[in-house]
Amino acid sequence: MADGEVIDRARFKTMTESTAEDWAAIGRAAAPHRGELPDRILAHLNLLKGDHGGFAVDRLEHSLQTATRAHKDDRDEEYVVCALIHDIGDVLGPANHAEVGAVILKPYVSDANHWMMDKHGIFQGYYFFHHLGLDRDMRDQHRGHPHFEYCAQFCHLYDQNSFDPDYQSMPLADFEPMLRRVLAAPKHSIYRKDDA
User: Fold this and answer.
1) 18 with 125: CB under 8 angstroms?
2) Model-level pTM?
3) What is the DSSP string of 157-180?
4) CA 151 to chain centre
5) Are 176 and 85 in contact (CB under 8 A)?
6) CATH fold for the domain made of 37-182
7) In terms of Cα–Cα distance, which of 182, 183, 167 is closest to 64?
8) Would you give per-residue pLDDT tens digits along the chain (196 residues)?
């Protein structure tokens, strides 16, 4: 490779052969993809439309109701975005849906909001696990955690009560600017030098 040559694709076959120039090419190619994350999330939220899963409203409407309730309660944008995509994993990870949304937002949100998203599935169980022969107090395994009440409050105020077919939710388009702002830049990332 000529000195100062800018390549458009990495040339290594194994990572042990990689160079700084290879990784610079990968970084340049990945930049637009990272910027498209809000579009991919919006597209995936739209996949929830029409999927009722036996509930009175479809999964998109549940997400919109949860986010609308949080927004009307003057929660900050980060919290509202968490409310909007808290169940985005229902389709891709039905056995661990809470973790799916949490891992997507982890670089962009506070520790409290990430923990809330990650654990809300168990906390939501307080309202229905006993009907399935499960322990409704399963969330108690986390009692004493600094974010326990924060997550319990999210489920009580916004999640468990957002299955109302008569509720007037804000449209998804109203949440798009918030989503774009929250996802504009990671707060935490293994790839950011200032996080080292």
Assistant:
1) no
2) 0.87
3) IIITT---TT--PPPHHHHHHHHH
4) 15
5) no
6) Hypothetical protein af1432 (1.10.3210)
7) 167
8) 555 678 889 899 999 999 999 888 888 887 777 778 999 999 999 999 999 989 999 999 999 999 999 999 999 999 999 999 999 998 888 888 999 999 999 999 999 999 999 999 999 999 999 999 999 999 999 999 999 999 999 999 999 999 999 999 999 999 999 999 999 988 876 655 554 4
